[in-house]
Design goal:
The protein is an all-alpha fold and 327 residues long. 69% of the residues lie in helices and 0% in strands. It has a domain of 165 residues. The chain contains 13 helices and no strands. The longest helix is centred in the first third of the chain and has 38 residues.
């Protein structure tokens, strides 16, 4: 591809169109990734329950007395039966990946036609309803498509028609997927956070992200360690878990891409916006069971704000220079 063609395709309007298509895919990622993870967990559980050695180590029973040994034997039979039931259920469920089966209406099973899947346009033509059963289609689908289009366009405007813009679009898409999954399930999958972290370190080592490898490495360690410390202080003080390890890994990944000076601004934005969202949800009666608000989406918001609007001013008070990628 010539430089002229690449420049043309990396204009904000072109990135916006591409972003809308990516947003449609992100809806699939956000919906299916947790399902794929859960099926893997059930498969792992069935394998563990069916493992004779594992059951023997857990249940023991030697020298426990006849009655106790009979009870343990019965428990082992029940566990083995549960393993067989789970395995049978898993084998009867249709396999699911990010590409299979085809998208379909959850109400009637209607397979979505290609023209119904056109980002935003398909939703508008259908007037927000399934063409087969007229059941409403969730409003979040077009919102995610529009949001991704706007993000890609903003990145194109921020970095110009460069390969750096394409790189940050990929990072932004992955961050949006993580935010959506965390909001829905409070899960931040390792299969997304870990590649994001390692890609950030690789980009820093090659000078692609504008962050030195030294700053990126400190960002990873400080990002993970800071939230890990908060987690344990909170748990020791209250006996409760205030966040999950996925939040540690997400902030570490942001540190890899943006450098350690970006961590404090990200945490400030995430804490303030998360607190405001929690207050609004509390008064609106929409807080979920356990009265929690996922932290991941607000970490993502803080990271994307720094990417789009720069970070030199944010970190000036720290007495250090901002990463080159944030200027």
């Amino acid at each position: 591809m010539s430089g002229l063609d690449a420049s043309f395709l990396l204009q904000p309007w072109a990135l916006a169109l591409f972003g809308a298509c990516i947003g449609s895919f992100l809806n699939v990622v956000a919906h299916r990734t947790p399902l794929m993870m859960e099926r893997q967990w059930w498969g792992d559980a069935a394998g563990l329950l069916a493992d004779d050695d594992a059951r023997g180590r857990f249940f023991g029973g030697a020298g426990a007395g006849a009655a106790a040994e009979a009870g343990l034997a019965d428990a082992q039979r029940r566990v083995q039966g549960a393993a067989q039931a789970i395995d049978s259920r898993l084998s009867s469920v249709e396999p699911i990946t990010l590409s299979r089966p085809r998208s379909r209406c959850p109400h009637c099973g209607h397979a979505i036609a290609w023209h119904e899947n056109i980002p935003v346009v398909g939703y508008l033509l259908l007037r927000g309803r399934c063409s087969a059963c007229a059941a409403p289609i969730g409003w979040r689908y077009p919102v995610v498509e529009v949001l991704t289009a706007l993000l890609f366009a903003a990145i194109g405007w921020r970095f110009g028609p460069t390969l750096q813009a394409a790189m940050w679009c990929a990072v932004g898409a992955l961050l949006l997927a993580l935010a959506l999954i965390d909001w829905d399930t409070t899960l931040l999958p390792d299969q997304l956070t870990q590649p994001l972290l390692w890609a950030g370190l690789l980009a820093a080592s090659q000078g692609f992200s504008g962050v030195s490898l030294h700053s990126a490495l400190i960002g990873v360690a400080a990002g993970y360690g800071s939230l890990w410390a908060v987690y344990w202080v909170f748990k020791l003080a209250t006996g409760k878990e205030g966040m999950g390890a996925g939040d540690f890994k997400l902030l570490a990944a942001l540190g890899a891409w943006l450098g350690w000076p970006a961590l404090l601004p990200i945490l400030i934005v995430a804490s303030i916006s998360g607190a405001l969202a929690g207050i609004a949800m509390k008064f609106g009666g929409s807080l979920r069971g356990g009265r929690y608000v996922p932290f991941g989406p607000f970490l993502v918001a803080g990271g994307l704000l720094l990417v789009l609007f720069g970070g030199t001013e944010w970190v000036a008070g720290l007495g250090v220079a901002g990463p080159a990628g944030l200027r």
